[in-house]
Amino acid sequence: MKQTIAIWVVSILMITSLAFNFPPGQQAHAAPPYDITVTFDAPTTGDAPDGYNFYVNDCAASGPSGAPVGTVFSGQQFNGLIGADGSYQMCVRPFNAAGELADPGPVAFVDISDVVLPGPIENLDIQVSCPNGGCAVNVNIP
Questions:
Q1: Count of domains in the chain?
Q2: Is 135 a domain residue?
Q3: Any residues with CB less than 8 A from the CB of 8 and at least 6 apart, and which?
Q4: Terminal CA-to-CA distance of the chain, rounded, Å?
Q5: Fewest CB atoms within 10 Å of the CB: 46, 56, 108, 127?
Q6: What is the pTM of this model?
Q7: What residues does 119 pair with on adjacent strands?
Q8: Contact at 8 Å (CB) between 93 and 70?
């Protein structure tokens, strides 16, 4: 059974979801590559977009300096997109016949690490011995 940890980054007019899939039994440690799922809302101003471009680490308000990862629709998954742990900026820019919008709008700042905090312990047993004779011991495990 595949286990998924999802991180939601909520921004004005856009919700970006990132899903990281871990193999069964590997919740505590992940290993790249990581899958990315992008979810967003269409703009409510201007002309209707013909499509959307998805960018990673190219989200300056002045416009992109390189090519997009690809065109994207809301809810699309990019399998194995992120090949290493690190910090990433992710954004979506709409485009139509007039061109691509330079300002990406909301930008998701994502830190990915293969080390995840462990879960809580499963069982706890406390044993107390009184080597010098009688003693009163209270153990409370809620």
A1: 1
A2: no
A3: 15, 16, 17, 18
A4: 31
A5: 127
A6: 0.62
A7: none
A8: no
Q: Please give the pLDDT value at position 23.
A: 45
Question: Is there a domain that residue 53 lies in?
Answer: yes
Q: How many residues does the chain have?
A: 142
Residue 140 lies in a domain: no
For residue 117, the one-letter residue type is L
Task: Give residue for tokens 């899903």.
Answer: 19
Q: Which residue has the tokens 């462990």?
A: 118
* CATH code of the domain covering residue 81: 2.60.40.10
Are 21 and 32 spatial neighbours (Cβ–Cβ below 8 Å)? no
Is 78 a member of any domain?
yes
pLDDT in tens for each of the 142 residues of the chain? 333 333 333 333 333 344 444 444 444 356 788 899 999 999 999 999 999 999 999 999 999 999 999 999 999 999 999 999 889 999 999 999 999 999 888 999 988 886 777 778 787 777 777 778 777 777 766 6
**CB burial readout 62-94, b (16+ within 10 A) else e:** eebeeebbeebebeeebeebbeeeeebebbbbb
Q: Evaluate whether 71 touches 53 at the Cβ level (below 8 Å).
A: yes
Residue 58's domain spans which residues? 3-112
